[in-house]
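Box S1 | Example of a co-folding query
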Amino acid sequence: MSVLDQSLLRRDIQSLAHFITALESDSPAAQATLKKSWKRRRPALRIGVTGPAGSGKSTLLDKLIAWYRGKKKTVAVIAIDPSSPATGGAFLGDRIRMQRHARDKGVYIRSMANRAAVGGIAPALDCVLGTLEIFGFDVILIETIGAGQSDTALRPLCSPLLVLAPPDSVDIVQAMKSGLMEIADILVISKADLPGADHAAKTFQQCLTLRGAQQRHVVCVSALKNSGIEELTSKIAEQARNTGTGYPLYSFPKYGDTVHPEIQDGSLHHVAIAVHRIKDHLPLYAKTLGMEHEGTFTLREYSVRIAALKLPNARIELIEPAGPRSTLTKFLAKRGEGLHHVAFQVADLPRRVTDLKRSGLKWINEQPRPGLHGSGICFLHPSSAKGILLEFVE
Ligand SMILES: Nc1nc2c(ncn2[C@@H]2O[C@H](COP(=O)(O)OP(=O)(O)OP(=O)(O)O)[C@@H](O)[C@H]2O)c(=O)[nH]1
Ligand SMILES: [Mg+2]
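Box S1 (continued) | Returned holo structure for guanosine-5'-triphosphate
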């Protein structure tokens, strides 16, 4: 057994630090160890925290650590920092805000340099998150660089993703303009002790309503006054219950995987089959056909439950109604069980929407809505596709 294998088995914090360093330098031995231990992973509550520079991310993290520690949960924090041009290492500024937890054995704080990767995350992040889950942390908090514009790469790695905006009009407008608002599960008006917080919350809520995403939460929090934390953590729990934690759709990660995701524009993403009860159909796909069952999730916004089954480059989704008012109930009554929709993957969803509109096709929704794990989705109207519902996933 290699030294790395042993360190992962022993689960002591010192070896964890070494192991993460090895992952960061793309060590094949660390990758091999990770792969071997992958089965021991236990999904953690992965909370992503992003937002413009200085919006209060680290200060909020400090309060969240305290809250989860109060509930006897172990907490790991990954703070992604801009790579220092001189050394390529990470700045330690964020750690200062969380200093008081440094001696707590149930807390592990680690900075990771993003090594000039795009999207605000570090190339080894995916692997590191898996490692922390093998170590058995209950909660993982991830703070990205306050780039403000390009933190969308974190989206598939956590659930929920919090986007912070202080009640300062410039930041609010910026957050609305950037893609950040689209990817947020929970919009946090940070520094809510400052004037204008309620107005900012209202503006956000209206904006979400206009975009048909009113189910997403807006919460006012003041880390300084320790207010709003209780509401925030309850929304976090609710969100995690609804969509699952960030990890299950991910198979074994490789260094750099999520930083340069290969989006094959126009390739098949999934085929959805409407069923009355998932459990009646799951054995055929998962046992007889041998597909990997990645998990079953509830999407509240559509009132459906989805069992995701993995194929080499796509997946099958079995979907069942998750309540009497589900649109799927109507579909099943009219058409019975069978093909519900076909989904394609696109690199630039708004552009695809505009292009197809120009070609005379009709959309059910032109503004992307959050799909499974928050990826933006738009549906083309069946009347535009000879009765078949087509979905486009970004
Ligand atoms: N009034 C007020 N100030 C706050 C609050 N939270 C943080 N701040 C202040 O905002 C400044 C930035 O806070 P940080 O927590 O470092 O913000 P950040 O988003 O982590 O910053 P970067 O990591 O540099 O992007 C600090 O001076 C904090 O004291 C709050 O709830 N209210
Ligand atoms: Mg910070």
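The mean pLDDT is 80. The pocket of guanosine-5'-triphosphate (ligand 1) is lined by residues 53-59, 94, 97, 146, 190-191, 193-194, 222-224 (CB under 6 Å).
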